[in-house]
Amino acid sequence: xxxNIPQTKAYSQGFRLYIILYFIFLFAPLAVTCVLAFNDxxxxxxxxxxFTLEWFTGHTLERTGIFNDQINLDSIWVSFKVAFFVSLLxxxxxxxxxxxxxxEDFPFKNLLFFLMLAPLVIPGVILGISILLFSxxxxxxxETHFGxxxxxxxxxxxxxxxxxxSFITTIVTLIVSARLKKFDHTxxxxxxxxxxxxxxxxxxxxxxxxxxxxxxxMAVSFLMSFENFNTTLFLVGSQATLxxxxxxQVRDGSTPVINAISVLMIGGTxxxxxxxxxxxxxxx
Amino acid sequence: MKSGIRWGLVIFITPVLVWxxxxxxxxxxxxxxxxxxxxxxxxEMGFSLANFKLFFLEPIYWRTFxxxxxxxxxxxxLTFLITMPIAFYITKVVSPKFQGFLSVLILMPFWVSxxxxxxxxxxxLRESGVINHFLIKFGLLNKPIEMLYNDATMITGLxxxxxxxxxxxxxxxxxxxxxxxxxxxxDLGGSVWSIAVRIVIPHCLPGxxxxxxxxxxxxxxxxxxxxxxxxKNGLWFTEQIxxxxxxxxxxxxxxxxxxxxxxxxxxxxxxGLKLTKQRLGKVVQ
Lengths: 284, 285
Fold this sequence. Notes:
The complex is a heterodimer.
Chain A: H1 9-36, H2 54-57, H3 70-103, H4 109-121, H5 124-146, H6 157-181, H7 185-193, H8 198-227, H9 232-235, H10 242-251, H11 256-283
Helix pairs in contact in A: 1-11, 3-6, 3-8, 3-10, 4-6, 5-6, 6-8, 7-8, 8-11
Chain B: H1 7-35, E1 37-39, E2 45-47, H2 50-57, H3 59-93, H4 96-107, H5 114-125, H6 130-137, H7 151-175, H8 179-187, H9 192-220, H10 224-229, H11 237-247, H12 251-275, H13 280-283
Antiparallel strand pairs in B: 1-2
Helix pairs in contact in B: 1-12, 2-3, 3-7, 3-9, 7-9, 8-9, 9-12, 11-12
């Protein structure tokens, strides 16, 4: 039970054991992946044959480290670009959405709110294929009616951005809305009484108040985009994102280079998550 | 202020409407239209329910469908069972000193890409994997066994992937549960079991429902984990959809499957909300 109620020893020891086992379950796959990135072996498996950094820096024919592996480096760069555009776009539209649902009243508001929540209950794979189908339909339409061949409608970079944007924006809207709910509206009224326009009030008062939530939402959307697989799978063209590229490699057998990439990803995402946490604590 | 057009509303609603119509509503409608069209004997496209008929006639399709649904429900339930004590421990049992640290630690692995997590499990479990290595070293096994590519590992992987989405809502509802309610129940002689069932669970219901919805939906729509950790026979419904689209290039058939999966996920979520008397709009907050 809770901390101020006395318990039998067996109960609290058992509970603690469960927690410890859970943490092992939680961290074992990640820890093993990281450790084996430094193993001096051709395969990501034990026995331990000594420490090496070759899977990061190597440039021999049989051991090409990640820093010299052009295909993987390219896909990391593609993922960065996608995540950059997705986080910008979805933070912008999601913040608009938060203002819309929190501060405005209009007919069919509930209906639109439900539509906004829909991406939460539509499986990512379905979002991917439906957007693929629709863009294909649009592409055909433009080609037969206007004789135009629009690159945007074929699987590729921008379609991946749009596909990820379509559900990440819902998450942003919910995060920013939660903060906007706590906003004291008398502050806005005061600013307007003192002669500020609606636009000035939003920029100087409301957006300032929302800043931690908006930055947090931006970090979350960046991470979600960077690691998305299910929606991207159907929309990807010749430029594979990192998860797609890794998937193809893992499916066809694995080398410790994948472990090395994993180490970089684990390090990178942990840093971003920690930074996000640190800043959101400071702002509060 | 109240004259003619409300510019604030127009500015806010335009991007949201464009997003929801072009990327959510119209693609779903388009997918539905695609699913009810098929080639007739003359090779012309027209209205037809053949795609849906094939689904019910071919046992492999509807069996995979049913299997996916049942396994997703099982995964959701298991995820709840495993994470509930953890959430309770962090919010109510551990001393407040460690509370922040533990909740950060527990959410950390989920920021890492799903692919890396699945890959970690593959390294651990496969025939040449780490667990086999240790089992042989300690003399518990004579020769390595293949632990990957079966239903149990697939479920483990799916539960592992989904835990975050159960933990976050559970932590937040447990946070709002007043400790004095548990103390009062304890003073009145309630057992651990009756306190859990009659006080803790009813209070947490909104969190449980929202966590379950997300976990269920993500499991149902997962492609990566069943594909890499499950068997090679396309036994998850998303794999059937993928095969129709990418391998057979039969987009109409694939759309029909996609539409069926969408119906299934909406139906079960609707049922879950009805059974627990919750509302979607409330649950997501």
